[in-house]
Amino acid sequence: MAWWNSIPLEITYQILGWTAFTSWSIGYYPQLILNFRRKSVVGLSFDFVVLNFTKHTSYLIYNASLYFSSTIQNQYYQKYGYGQMIPVAANDVAFSTHAVLVTAVILFQILIYDRGGQRVSKITIAIVCAVWLFVAVCLFMALPSHSWLWLISIFRSDLFYAFAL
């Protein structure tokens, strides 16, 4: 149960979280189905899909790391206090996993279906490469001190999202 120790609030928290998961997840399927029926991705913004995949991958790294890693959770408690609730719930991990998988399927559709001469722009490729280079540099900065909370917080930062979409 959550730190506030209230069953009605916990139930509300769970209901709203899974409702958000369902609402956001449903939004992916019309494009996926349209691509499948047409066997074409003409008109789809490839840049958007690539940037969206980068964004959701970073969100998954943040969510899964904070939700599953006891080391990162301990770093979180040391920084914010042991009475605080971890700000990631199961529905957050489920959504980010779902978003990465569905976006990966759409990327696969881009590879196999008629593209009509469309392609990912050079600027998008440059942005994605810069974002992941930034991540690699931050990883090497976090290694010596084991600053894993700091590292995953980068994946949730506004700076990262400004580049990733």
From TrEMBL:
Q: Where in the cell is it found?
A: Lysosome membrane
| Record SMART domains | CTNS
Q: Which GO terms describe its cellular component?
A: lysosomal membrane
Membrane topology, as annotated, equals: Multi-pass membrane protein
Name it: Cystinosin homolog
**GO MF assignments:** L-cystine transmembrane transporter activity
Q: What is its main location?
A: membrane
> What is the species of this protein?
Fagus sylvatica
Q: Kindly state which keywords UniProt assigns to this record, in alphabetical order.
A: Lysosome, Membrane, Repeat, Transmembrane, Transmembrane helix, Transport
Tree of life domain: Eukaryota
Q: Where are the annotated coiled coils located?
A: none
TM segment ranges: 12-29, 41-62, 93-111, 123-142
